[in-house]
C-alpha cells in the first residue's frame, strides 16, 4: 500500500468503524467477499505474504490491519492482534472490513488485486476454529487433520496418551478442534513455575522448570509458597516422563524458599556457583529458577554423571568425570577415548577444583584404560581387576564402565 493510500485507509478504517458496527450490511453497497487467491494478492502487496508480520508500524499481519479496526470488526475473538491470528482468521475478519468499508480500505493494494470485483466466498465450506489462547485450562484440543489430542494447560498443549483417557477422566466428546498450524505450534510443557499433579489423582505435586517436573516435598509445599499457586492436573504419561527429566544444562537454579546460594544444572547435578564466578562467568545474565528445597538438596548432592566432559570458563584444560573425580585429559586421551564426540560442559571452576583434588573415584566406579582389556573397580581408593562373570543380565553392565587415561589406573594401588 502506498503511503498516500495508507493515510486515506487509516482515516477510513478508524472513522467508520463504529458506524460499521451499527449497520455494516444494511447500508453497504461495497464488495462483501473475495476469494483466498485475491486476499493472497492483497497480502503480497501489503506484507509480501507474511501473515505473522509485526514491524511496529501500527499495522499487523498479512493484510496490515489496524488494531482498532481489528477490534471493531470482531478480530479479538481470534487473537489480541491480527498477526497473532491464523491466515484464515485474518481473512475472515478482513471480509467483515470489506463489507463495511469496501476495497478502498486497502488502497492501491486492494485495487491492484481486484478486491472490489471478486465476490467469491473465501471459505465456502471450511469451518472456523477458535484460537488456543481463548480456551480455558483443561480443554481438550486436536487438529482436524490428525488423531493426536492435547490438553490446554496455561497456554501449552500437553499431549494426552490413549492410556490417560480413562484414568484421567478425559471426555473425548468435548474435544475442541483448532487449526492444524496452531495445534502443532503449541508448547508441549506448561511455563516455568506451574504447579501440577497427576490428573488421575494422588498426593504428589510438582513444579515445572524448563520442561522438567520437579517433585515438591511435603516440607516444601507451604515453606516454598507452592500452596498459594494454582494446582493443575496433567496427563499421567506426560507427567511421568517430565518427572524423569532434569532442567536443561546451563539452567541457573536457587532454593525457592530463598538464600544466596546459586547453582547451574549439568546433567542432572546442581553445581554450586561461587560468588566470584556469579558475575565473572556471566551466570548473572541468565534467568534464575526457584526450585523446591528438598529437590535442590538432592540434586546438589548428586555425583556428576560418569563420562561427562567438563572444563572451566577461563582454562582450556578438559576433564572427564569418573566417580565424582574430575580426571585430566590430554589431547590424545580426549580424542583417543572418544570424548571429542561428546558435549563439553563449562562449569564453575571452584566446584571443578574440588572434584580435581579428590584422590580417587568413588567406591564402585568401574574404569577402563585405552588399549587395555581389564576392567578395574575402585574400592577404598584401591583398584581390583574384575572378571567377566560379574557382567551380564541381572549383574553389572559394561555401559557403566568409564574410559579414563591409563595414568589414573596406574596411580591407584592394587587391592
User: What portion of the residues fall into strands of 2 or more residues?
Assistant: 15-25%
Strands across the major sheet, in which order? 5-4-3-6
Q: What is the structural class? A: alpha+beta
> Which architecture of the largest domain does the CATH hierarchy give at level 2?
Orthogonal Bundle
Assembly classification: single chain
Largest sheet: 4 strands, mixed
Count all strands and give the number: 22
Task: Round the Cα radius of gyration to an integer and report it.
Answer: 30 Å
**What is the CATH third-level topology name of the largest domain?**
Lysozyme
Shape: elongated
Termini, distance in Å?
Answer: 84 Å
Measured as a percent range, the helix fraction is 25-40%
Question: What's the helix count?
Answer: 14
Q: Mean of the pLDDT scores?
A: 90
The level 1 CATH classification of the largest domain is Mainly Alpha
Stretches with pLDDT under 50, minimum 5 residues: 1-31
